[in-house]
Design brief:
This protein is an alpha/beta fold. 58% of the residues lie in helices and 13% in strands. It contains 8 helices and 5 strands. Helix 1 crosses helix 8 and helix 4 runs parallel beside helix 5. The structure holds BIS(adenosine)-5'-tetraphosphate.
Length: 186
């Protein structure tokens, strides 16, 4: 399976990606997690990315595309993978098409997590208290939601045209949502 998870911030992409990874033999590439790891490690990429992340903006395409391309370089590109949170704009989607086409691979499914704005804000509020993530403060969250509508929403339409996109209602019990995801991947 070659899967993309797309959805607004706080829609549970990362949560569901971990569950799918436990169940299926595939490599998960989560750009948010990778970027947070780079920030924590103080790498050059991390230092560049941090300023965008704390403002709730997308990290520049060149940085993120490079991280993703790294996984597909070399003689043995992964045949089964889940991209969590990438692509996040149409330009990244086009870049991914090019990378996959070079590897003679194509996506099999794009899962779009559908959650109301009120629920997104509530979840991120809970996480702010629990994890203290700098991009979970109120101003950054407003910006992340705006960025989602302007930059990421068009990615949903991009994949809808290809016929591989499915929508998952992503409110309620995490396990129930996981079952919906698995049903769509079968
Ligand atoms: P991400 O790490 O992808 O962050 P996210 O969109 O907030 O998370 P996600 O939807 O995975 O929600 P989660 O499971 O954590 O990105 C962070 C930042 O990195 C971006 O803003 C951007 O700056 C940068 N970035 C990443 N990818 C990029 C790219 N391709 N291009 C440019 N920049 C990029 O769930 C959220 C919370 O809800 C959690 O606390 C979870 O426990 C809870 N939750 C999950 N499911 C739930 C449920 N069913 N019910 C109740 N709570 C639930």
């Amino acid at each position: 399976m070659r899967i993309v998870f797309v959805g607004p911030p706080g829609s549970g992409k990362g949560t569901q990606a971990k569950l799918v990874q436990e169940r299926m033999a595939l490599q998960v590439i989560g750009t948010g997690d990778l970027l947070r790891g780079a920030v924590k490690a103080g790498t050059t990429t991390g230092r560049k990315a941090e300023q965008f992340m704390i403002r709730g903006e997308l990290v520049p395409d060149a940085l993120v595309n490079d991280i993703v391309a790294e996984f597909f370089r070399g003689t043995n590109p992964p045949n089964s993978f889940l991209l969590d949170g990438y692509p996040r704009n149409v330009s990244q989607a086009e870049y991914l098409d090019g990378v996959l086409s070079d590897c003679k691979l194509a996506l099999t499914r794009v899962i779009f997590f559908v959650v109301t704005v009120d629920e997104l804000i509530r979840r991120i509020d809970v996480r702010r208290t629990a994890e203290n993530r700098p991009d979970d403060d109120a101003a950054a969250v407003r910006q992340r939601l705006t960025t989602y509508e302007q930059a990421t929403r068009p990615v949903v339409d991009y994949y809808r045209k290809t016929g591989i996109l499915v929508e998952i209602p992503a409110i309620g019990d995490v396990e129930a949502i996981h079952r919906r995801v698995i049903a769509e991947l079968r």
